[in-house]
Amino acid sequence: MSEKRLLSSCETDYNSDLHSWIDIERQISNLAEAGFTHTQWMQNWEGEYLYSPSEMFQARDVLNFYNIKAHSIHASEGGIRTKVINGKKVFRNRYRFTEIRKDYTSKNEYARLAGVDLLKNRIDLCSHIGATVMVLHMQLPYMMFEEQPEEKDIYYRQVCKSFDEVKSYATAAGVRIALENMICTPQKYQDEQFDMLFDRYTDDFLVFAWDSGHAALMCREDPYHFLKKYQDRLYATHLQDNASISDELLYQEDPESADREVLLHDAHWIPNVDGTLDKGMLDWKLIAKHLAKAPLELPADFEVCISGPDELEQLKICHKQAEKFYKMVTEYRE
Confidence class of residue 257 from pLDDT cuts 50, 70 and 90? Predict the structure, then answer.
């Protein structure tokens, strides 16, 4: 009996969210040359860009040409929610945004409805390229919740209104929305968020996306907290490694400085699955055991940052780690 084929997945924007089709195809071509079989479509994960149907067909055809399957995408929650400080993007999520024109959480009903249209646009992209899971950010304005408690109910009322409106569209397309655990947001607010929304919506619509690097930074007592708690809802991953962050840097008095340090430590290193790489802190055997019990369609998606003259060689190293992780998870499943 021949050995089972090893699968592997790495996101399309592994060396930046580039938007020209020449750059996008180059990245996908490199993924194929490195040996990857799957990907998460990441282009335009931030902002208000709407894909035209012809672009969706182009994304499908480019992936098909290189024989890479996209079983997930990263949707946009609307607007530019980051700013660049010293060359590094920093999330701005402590307060509600007012300048964003497409925002499914907005108090402005027109902006909220435009945000719903943006989500439907990404569901259409899923349908065109064969993806069944759509990862979505929900950057909680948690300091606003603390200072104006009445705003929390308003915020979640708008969120649920949007999800209620998009649910039938998503389920008809066979697409699940997977909420991702975030950085720059304390764990307790994310626990509250996921508990409430997963209680309200069934897992044929709303599920969980686990980002291992974000968890290592924000889950201070147990980096596997969300992985364990929402294992039964886990349909998507962003697997990466980092060295976490010290309490001293995380709990600075100046919020902007703290958020900047979190982003600087969100390293997106290649997961050190077999222990042969020289950096990383996460226990990949433990992660594999939990993913083996999750309803996640394999292979799990890696989300790494790779650039430089040895880009392709680094991708090949990442591919080998991804194959080893796939084998590890499937062995636990068996």
Answer: confident
List the Cα angle 25/31/34 in 5-degree steps.
140
Residues 73, 129 contacting (CB under 8 angstroms): yes
The pairs formed by 137-140 with CB atoms below 8 angstroms and a separation of 24 or more are: 137/77, 137/81, 137/179, 137/180, 137/182, 138/77, 138/105, 138/179, 138/180, 138/182, 138/193, 139/77, 139/81, 139/91, 139/93, 139/182, 139/184, 139/185, 140/93, 140/182, 140/185, 140/189, 140/190, 140/193
Segment 51-96, tens digit of pLDDT: 999 999 999 999 999 999 999 999 999 988 877 766 666 677 788 8
Cα–Cα distance, 203 to 38 (Å, whole number): 23
Torsion of CA 315, 321, 323, 329, to 10 degrees: -140
Record the tokens describing residue 49, joined without a space.
Answer: 């860009």
Report the alpha-carbon distance of residue 256 to residue 275 in Å, rounded.
35
- pLDDT score at 2: 47
d(CA 33, CA 162): 40
Distance linking the first and last C-alpha atoms of the chain:
17
Mean pLDDT of 10-39: 95
Report the pLDDT value the prediction gives residue 1, as an integer from 0 to 100: 39
